[in-house]
Amino acid sequence: MVKAYLRYEPALTFGVIASPESNVCYDPSGRLLLAGALDRLAAWDLKRGLPSVSFAPSSSSSSLAVFCIASSPSAAVSSSIASGHADGSIRLWDAETGSCEATLHGHRSAASALRFAPSGAVLASGSKDCDVILWDVVAQAGLFRLRGHRDQVTDLVFLDSGKKLASCSKDKFIRVWDLETQHCLQIVGGHRSEIWSMDVDSSERFLVSGSADPELRVFRIRQSMEEGEDWSKWDVLKLFGEIPRQSKERVATVRFNRDGSLVACQVAGKTADIYRVLDETEAMRKAKRRMHRKKEKASAKSMIAEGNGTVIDPLPAQDLQNPAVTVTDVFKLLQVLRASKKICSVSFSPSNPPRGCLATLSISLNNNTLETYSVDSEKVSKMYSIEMHGHRSDIRSVSLNSEDNLLMSTSHNAVKIWNPSTGDCLRTIDSGYGLCSAFVGNRFALVGTKSGTLEIIDIASGSLTEVIEAHAGSIRSIVPIPDEDGTVGARGFVTGSADHDVKFWEYQQLKKSDDDSKQLTVTNVRTLKMTEDVLAVSISPQGKHIAVALLDCNVKVYHMDTLKHFLTLFGHKLPVLCMDISYDGALIVTGSADKNLKIWGMDFGDCHKSIFAHSDSVMDVKFVYRTHYMFSVGKDRTVKYWDADKFELLLTLEGHHAEVWCLTISSRGDFIVTGSHDRSIRRWDRTEEQLFIEEEKEKRLEETFEADLDNDNEYRYGQKDDAPDEGSVGVPGRKTKETVTSADAIMEALDTAEEELKRLNQHKLEEQNNGRAAKFQPNVIMQGHSPSDYVLNVVSSIRPNDLEQALLALPFSDALKLMSYLKEWSLVPSKVELVCRVCLVLLQTHHNQLTTTPAARSLLTELKDILYCRVKELLAMRSDAPFRDAKAKLMEIRQELSKRSDRPDGNEKRKKKRKKASGES
């Protein structure tokens, strides 16, 4: 029998509030703040400080970091959210439900900029591959690709109500594109370094761009040509002036508020400058005051000059009455926002600010926090701060209590207690730099710090009860001492430190504090002196042996009761950073900075197997309780699952975006928890799905082959070919595994349908010749559909964004077969749009061959007439579609009124009855 194992899959990710690689922005309603959290998005309710909606990707694409976010305007028809990812893909999300509506593939490297058009129906995306792609959000497909930039596209803005697009890049240029004619209108230079951001106000008066230059450049936006102006010399952007900046760091983000009265310039540091944008009246008034002061200075100089016998020309009267407005008359520095840490991104709230405030500004910091400020004319005040849901730095240790319902994590300044089932933060306790931790029952916890102190924490009250100067160096390990019956931590614990000591501690009787609550205290009972720094300590489950890993790359094993030397394990080329002993005490596994795992026998200290486990240092390794299966984590960002008896890799779990420092396993082995340098805590659950070693090996080989194929075919880090043509337009999509699979599905469906048609013709021929024939047995694969309907179902099942690339991959013979079905498909009203799109792509791709192939001429002639008529009918149907129900309702009302008019009036009937009654009386 082939041995089967149970698969582990990602279940929960928590601890990340805002990742520094992504920007922040408000959702279409303006109530929630969107922040990228590694591979997912979160919509935060700032008042409550809680995540309202989580936008989580599928597990297959969990390692793709979010690089940029954009939300559709509040006035748009659709309320969509777009996120750009590390592989260049764009995902569209529903703002209310948090579900992923579409994944758009087009860029060859990471997406760097996103912007919705004012209508919300078009999305522009820029990337590190230097291209700009326009997407149809409704059809979920690409429109066209704009090429011309020579470096990464950093920001995008729409102009002229979405008819034009401005893009800036690290190549120091701004390009203005006409989206109707799909060509570059203007190339704007002037910046002396890379342009990092730009934005335009709501009334489209000014465009402000920022770079590493010591000033911001402001452009006036011209909507139309002046009388007699040459078209070839007409510019959309015209330089208005330069604003000197306060900071020397480069500009990171430039953003206007909703009404365009404020503009924020955030630098790659701790400050953000907020400028007031004056309207035309105020700007003219300020210009006149400036000219008045200039006049006073000139008059003073002239008086001095007259005394000296010289003459100075007076200022022109026209300049005094109608002075020219300069950029300093319009843009005035209002406030400087100074944050405690480096600012990663800023965003103005589109909703109405609180009374007495000019605007509300939210920022994300690189220490995993979000802050919201109110901006007024006098000061910038902090309103909200979201920081409880994550650590300020990387997570160095994680541990579970005995019941697996509490999780503890440590970082450089705090200890957090979590609910591992939901990811909710229950307690936050200030502490030192915790390198290791352990629970004592369910009420107390121990933390070993980098400074050598041992901290005792009361979990119930969330307080630090005692700090013990335990070691002179960093405490690297805290290991509970198990009893002979396997009870963990009942007798005490052991600490290993960089001061060459291994200390044994016992719990003393609980002392009572001032409020009569019992507190834990510990005392040192034994000390084992070592010759080198202690990097890791492990104790066998029965408490018979203790293993100590030293800086000299060796592991020494001692008897627990007498502390006599038992074994020395040597063979690692670099220091051993972690180790663990199996439940039966038969095996010990060591993980080292030399990237290897070594499995040893505890009886003779022989090395059973040395495994090249990770592509970087192995940081932690743990056995699953009551098994010889083990998990290891490393600096290569992966979590690996091993069989220590067969020395086989069972599973590789990917998801972390930085070095994985630590892991812990539940007592039943049903889930594991890992902590990483990316500040995330991830839980991986054991499922009921079985996995087999041979199948996993085949999958890994296929993934390696496909990755090599992608590296050969795609330009992951930019274009390898020559620079693109000036302002050229290209196909929006790109070739992916999905498009290749879709093309194969179409070709397979065409072959199946052709075989079925041959069988049908053969059956009809036999029926004609013999008079009677056996009953025709249709192909089971076609599921009862006709050949034409079968091919139509396959083509319709392809995602709109992948259809174009799939059709481009078809050879001419298959394209000709596919076009033969278009005539029949066009009779279906709901498929006319699909037929037109397929026909257009095939005509553009195979135009030369189609025009020179005699068999295709008649087909093209028929399609020309049929498609024209069908599209005309479809447009006519859609034109009155909004009024069709109203028209039917109106006809019903008219019929009802006509029926009532035909009937005799009710009053006349009553009069007749009265007359009849009076006559009878």
Automatic annotation (TrEMBL):
WD repeats lie at residues 59-103, 104-137, 146-187, 188-229, 388-428, 569-610, 611-652, 653-685. Residues 894-908 have a biased composition (Basic and acidic residues). Keywords: Coiled coil, Repeat, WD repeat. Residues 743-770 form a coiled coil. This is Small-subunit processome Utp12 domain-containing protein. Belongs to the WD repeat WDR3/UTP12 family. InterPro entries: SSU_processome_Utp12, TBC1_cilium_biogenesis, WD40/YVTN_repeat-like_dom_sf, WD40_PAC1, WD40_repeat_CS, WD40_repeat_dom_sf, WD40_rpt. SUPFAM superfamilies: WD40 repeat-like (SSF50978). Residues 714-735, 894-921 are annotated as: Disordered. Residues 788-874 form the Small-subunit processome Utp12 domain. CDD domains: WD40. Residues 909-921 have a biased composition (Basic residues). It comes from Urochloa decumbens. Pfam families: Beta-prop_WDR3_1st (PF25173), Beta-prop_WDR3_2nd (PF25172), Utp12 (PF04003).
